[in-house]
Every structure is written in C-alpha cells, then in structure tokens.
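Exercise 3.2. Students should predict the tertiary structure of the chain below and write it as structure tokens, then compare their answer with the key that follows.

Predict this chain's 3D structure.
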Amino acid sequence: MVNRFEIYPVRVENKRQAEKVLTEIDCWQEGTDIMAPKALHFTFKLGPLRHEAAIILKQEMLSKGGEAALHWEVLKGRDHTFALLMGTLAQYRRLLPRLYQQPFGLRQLGKELKASLEKLSGGERSRFLKCGGGRTMTLGEQTLVMGILNVTPDSFSDGGQLNSPGEALEAALEMESLGADIIDIGAESTRPAAKAAISTEEPLSRSPFSARQGEARVTAQEEMDRLLPVLEKVVKYVKVPVSVDTYKGEVAGEALRMGAHIINDVSGLEDPTMAKVVADHGAAVVIMHSTPESHSNIIEGIVGTLGKRIEKALDAGIGDDQIIVDPGVGFAKDLNQDLTIINRLDMLKALDYPVLLGTSRKSVIGGVLDSSTGRRLEGTAATLAVGILRGADIVRVHDVGEMVKVVKMTEAILHA
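Answer key:
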C-alpha cells in the first residue's frame, strides 16, 4: 500500500496571512520573520521608462531572482516603455536599495515602488475617516452600508417616491433601523444609465449628468429647494453620518452648513469651488471617476485619473483622512468595463484610500441578466459580494435591509 502525502494549497495575500500559515506549522519566530516576505508575490506594471532605465531595471530584478518583461524593441533604444516586474516581497526589498543608486529616474521609481509594496503587503487595517461636524468613522473593520435616499422626481430607480420631507425622514429612519451606516441624500438625478459623456472640459453651466440629450439642467437653487428641507430633518433625527450626493460646490456648502458630514461628488471635484468648500468645512468627500477613458486598460485609466483628482483635493487642503474613492460603475463605461471594475476592485488599493462601490440596480446588472430596474436585487447582491471580497470599504445601496444581510454573510465568509 502506498503511503500518500497530504498536499494543501495555501492562499497568502498579505504579510499577516503569511505569518499565520508559518506559525501554524510551528516555524520558529526568527524563521517566520525571514520567510514571510518570501511567501508574498507581486506583479507590477510600471513606467514609462527610458530604455536605459528599463534595461537596468530588468538586470537588477533578474539578479535578485525575480522576473522582468520589457517591450521587445527596448534593446533597439525604444523609450517610453513599460516593464512588468514579478517577484516576492523579499526580492523587491533587495531590489530597492539598488534602484536608489541608479540614474534615469530609477531612484524616484524605487521610492514609489516601496510605497506601493507597503500598501499592498500590509493586509487589512483600520483607519479613521474624518467627517464634517467633528465626527469620525472607522473603516477597514467591516464593510459599511450607505443607504440611498433620493428626493428627486426622476432618478433612474426610485425617482418620485418621496414627496415630502416627512416621508423622506421616515425612509431615512427605516434605513438606519435596518443597519445603514450612512444615509446618502440626492436631489438631482445623475441617471448613469444614459451613458452621457462626462468631460472635465465641459462648463458647469450645463449638467454633464443630464438624463437625456438636451434635458434642462437642475439649477443649484432647485436642487437646494429639494434637498435642504429634507436634510434639515434627517440630520436632526438620524444618528448615523449623512452624506449629500451633489457635484455643485454651492449646494455642498449649504448642505455642510446645515450639518451634512460627507459630500458624494459624482463628478470627481469638477466644480472648481468644490474642493475648497469641503476643505473649509472639514468634511469627508467621495471622489468618483466619471470621465471617459482612452486607456485600453480601464483600471489603469481609473487609477491614473483618480490620482490626479486626489492631488487636487490635497492641494485644496482636504486631508488624507477625509477622502474616499469610487470607481464609478455605470458612468462613462461599457458593460465589460463595469464588470472588470467589480472583479478587479482590489487594484484600487494602489491609491491607498477607502473604496466605495455603487452597483445597486445599475445597468450592468440589467445588461447581464436582461432585467428591469426593479428586478435587480439578486444581481446587486452578487456584485456586492464580489466587491467586498475584492476590498470594498463602503457599498452604496437602495435595498438596505437585504444588502445588510449580504454584507454580513460575505464578511463572515471572508474572515473565516
């Protein structure tokens, strides 16, 4: 009789998990410290590089036992190329000191690569989000649920259902009782299903989120007439933080003065006054990606664009602990791009900011399931489950009671 061995696959995604599996086999502590970085493998696409830098980078990575792939014409002097590095955390750690000694921009590349490795290898960690009114929220311990409270007559999913501040307050209190961690109030429909092109070049005198071509823009005053009476009641009676969904700096300023804690800006700080308004009130802000990307890789395009918007926020005085990013599912993206975003949400970790995922009842679900807006509950649940497994910190939903259960179940599996 053959004595068979037991062979088990082991998944290691961060340093904490690496240390855990080494401890489980009773590896001595010194050995665990040495070998944990060898259990973590990372692949980076980085550039653009001069051909001299690309060649040095490849040689150094290979000398450390890793792998590096370059464009085949680099040896002919091709510049502006990207490299694909593949290696363990330990190999990258040996690579970095060598990059610090090199010319052609490799010293700066080494610094940025070190920062990315620290973000990706650290594993789950709690962080505090600073909100308006001196409030703080804890992120990273569990996925938070943001309940959608639309007070618009024309929202794609639930427009016109709440016709008075009293009804809106009742809905907000119900969402809170069902487990919502944040209430997000919107008073102008963005109607992402329309797929309207959103451009940073478009003047704010015309809404980039119109439901139909040529539809009249909702003015700041009209938006405030809908929003403020509801907001006044909600901030008075609801205990959880309140977010306001607006891309207008004027509206955001009034909402924050009235007691809102977070601004959810679907335009990603397009209004030139928005960042300063948020900074002046010490509020948190959701910076959403909503611009068409020419980049062939939608995730790389989103990371690049959001990185620039984050710089704009920081320059205006918004703190690192006040920023949330949203990849903008359904905004200026096709079906396959939306699905890719959900599946590769973890790639946004490179930005090192909390991630909000909003897929509730969106067209990506209708496109896959051929279902109408009101029949997308199961599809929404599936997108949230995958999004949470990929690292979503906050999920924005219409059906709070059902989605709180989805979050709880997915978290239980994730942390088992």
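Discussion points: The longest helix spans residues 220-237. The chain has two domains: 40-121, 127-414.
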